[in-house]
Amino acid sequence: MGDRLRVAVTLEQCWHRVPGGTARSALDSIDALNAHGSVDLIGVSARHSQDPEPAWTPAVPMRSFRLPRLALYESWHRFRRPRITSLVGPVDVIHATGMAVPAPTAPLVVTVHDLAFLRDPSQFTARGVRFFHRAIELARRDATLINCPSQATLDECIDHGFDPDRLRLLPWSIEPVAVPAERVAEMRTRLGIDGPMVLWAGTIEPRKNLPMLLEAFGRLADDSATLVLAGPAGWNEDIDSQLATLGEKVKSVGFLGTDELRAMYAAADIFCFPSRQEGFGLPVLEAMAQGTAVITSVGTATEEVAGDAGVLIDPQDCDSLVAALDRLLSDTELREQLGALGRERVRDLFNPRRHAVALESIYREAVVLGSGATTP
Asked: Can you list the positions of beta strands (E) in the chain?
């Protein structure tokens, strides 16, 4: 093995209908390694007739199997074929960045983002639950090392039978990019907002706890506030009747590209993310990077991300969310203080250089640990 590592990275989630945090985190890791690491990356996907959307296009060379996604996932999980090394040639490490786990024909690193399907299987399809159970079984059995983005996820992995000695804590990172004041003003003008703005961002699904946020918003003392919902429709969550009741107080803008979403965070007075469970909570980090005051949940990974730079509420207690929103909406100085703390926390703990150094170290450790125990 030379000074540089050659690593194959699974990136099929970039083509998912809702790529979500697993794709964003993988692409951000790639960018961090490209800028700060000594790693040559090659991406792996199923067969597709076109590239993913520009926001989800990997900045690495890609190789595609002949199988479409569902057949590839099924074949990996049932038959442990096709082998990644048969597609890309010899590599030092295979990194499974999502929950499809290929055969370990090189030392295998698997990222386990969360185990939400174990806590509440009702949020997923029966097929999805079977797929995730098989993925976890294979990760426990075959992975040389397992990355977890938060201590909460790492602890869940231990609770579900993973070898603690093979688990590594690797938080996601972000490169803060300043948004010009005129861009912020343009965003608020486009939305027609001249009063306080509260933002939520993510994929609409049950664990995001949007019904409680909408209920809380309807009970605020400040009638001039507007709630903006940014993100794609997901699954198993119907909020249409609540949106109809709140009318113009809520604006749904759908999926936004990276630059637009960044401007939206910067334009908001408060970012509110009362999720019931997260493997990490990237939107919280994105809001903090823009100096926006954050309200998020205790008892999940977002508490780790926000630390003392956010207001923490019980995601089962609507009264606590109402109180937190009322408090921040009425206290400009506190919002500014939290925003400054958030920026500092991002710079110190969640910067790309730190992430790249840690991830490359995990790859190199996997080579040492796994070089004598891989499938020929």
From this structure: 5-10, 39-45, 62-64, 93-96, 108-111, 145-148, 167-169, 197-201, 226-230, 250-254, 270-273, 293-297, 310-313
